[in-house]
Structure formats: structure tokens, C-alpha cells
Specification:
Blueprint: E1 17-24, E2 27-34, H1 39-46, E3 65-68, E4 71-74, E5 87-89, H2 103-110, H3 120-133, H4 139-145, H5 156-164
Parallel strand pairs: 1-5
Antiparallel strand pairs: 1-2, 3-4, 3-5
Helix pairs in contact: 2-5
Length: 192
């Protein structure tokens, strides 16, 4: 079998750990992880990338959001061992390589779309993932992308203002509203 066709099977050592090479923010990084260890722990504890935060630990709040091959995932639920062939992007990897912020990060700054900032990287990465697959999303698309994100401070108005910079023209059947998503995933003011 050629090296291009190889399928890597990781067998744990006697302590239940495996050696991994992860592609994080464009760099290949060697780490040691337990077979059951979430990507979030590896990013924070092994690689010292603290932008992804531990919030709920069960994939509900979005504070741990990272990009896996361009899609937003909850790193608290994603096993590190299953990411060896993936491109992982954290908030630390969004700059242009010269230290300039991404357009989404700039929009969040312009609109002061944060208070305590605990959730900010999750919202930014959720919007980045949306824009990668749909460069001109509707406001409905943004609300759907943010449905797995929770802001404990209630900065939804500013977060949506930042996101609206990237919204394309609304369709005829989709009115533009000023409502922000609520913590329950709906829009503020809606009966759930």
C-alpha cells in the first residue's frame, strides 16, 4: 500500500493514550491524548490555545466552537483522535498571517459585540463557517448558524449588528428584523 492510500489506525499505549499529529491553524502539531479525550482539552491543555472555552461541556452553549474542515463543531464533543486528518481552525488562527484580524473579527470589534467575551470566539467561528459555505447569507441563515451559541451577557443586539455586515439582500419572503436570537435559540420577544 502506498503512503497516499494508508489508513491510520491509532492503537493506545498501556495508559490509553495515543500520539497524534493535528493540523491546527495551518501548523502540524504533535500531541499525546487519551482515546476518549475531547479536542477542546487537547487544544487548551496540550497546545495552549485558549480561545475555545469550556462552557457547558455537552455541546449546547457553543463557547468551545472551532472549525473542522471549515464547519463549526463543538470541540467539547469532538474526539481529538478523530481529527488527525482534519484541518482545525481556532480563533487564534483567523488572522491573515501578519497579525491582522479577519473581517468578522473586525466587525465584532466595530459593533462591540461582546461584554465578558466568553462566547465571542464561538460566535465569530460560527459566522466564519457560515460565510465559508455561503458568502452572502440571509439573516435567517445567520440566526440558524447562531442557534448553537449562547451569550450569557445578552449581547445579541451587538452580535447581530456585526453579523448583518455580511448579510446579502433579503428574499421577498424574508423580512429583515431587528430581533436577536434568545438564549433558547429563538428570537427575542418570541413565545417559545
Amino acid at each position: 500500500m502506498s503512503s497516499d492510500d494508508e489508513t491510520l489506525v491509532l492503537l493506545p499505549d498501556e495508559e490509553g493514550e495515543v500520539q497524534l499529529t493535528l493540523n491546527v491553524n495551518g501548523q502540524r502539531r504533535k500531541v499525546t491524548a487519551r482515546t476518549t479525550q475531547p479536542l477542546l482539552e487537547v487544544l487548551r491543555d496540550e497546545l495552549r490555545l485558549h480561545g475555545a472555552r469550556s462552557g457547558c461541556g455537552v455541546g449546547i452553549c457553543g463557547a468551545c466552537t472551532v472549525l473542522r474542515d471549515g464547519a463549526a463543531v463543538n470541540s467539547c464533543l469532538t474526539l481529538a483522535g478523530l481529527c488527525a486528518d482534519a484541518e482545525i481552525t481556532t480563533i487564534e488562527g483567523l488572522d491573515d498571517g501578519e497579525g491582522d484580524l479577519s473581517p468578522v473579527q473586525e466587525a465584532f470589534l466595530r459593533h462591540r459585540a461582546f461584554q465578558c467575551s466568553y462566547c465571542t470566539s464561538g460566535f465569530i467561528l460560527a459566522l466564519e463557517a457560515l460565510l465559508r459555505r455561503n458568502p452572502h447569507p440571509s439573516e435567517k441563515d445567520v440566526h440558524e448558524a447562531f442557534s448553537g451559541q449562547v451569550c450569557r451577557c445578552g449581547s445579541y443586539t451587538q452580535i447581530m449588528a456585526a453579523a448583518r455586515e455580511f448579510v446579502g439582500e433579503p428574499s421577498a419572503d424574508e423580512p429583515v428584523t431587528g430581533d436577536a436570537p434568545s438564549a433558547a435559540g429563538g428570537r427575542a420577544g418570541e413565545d417559545q
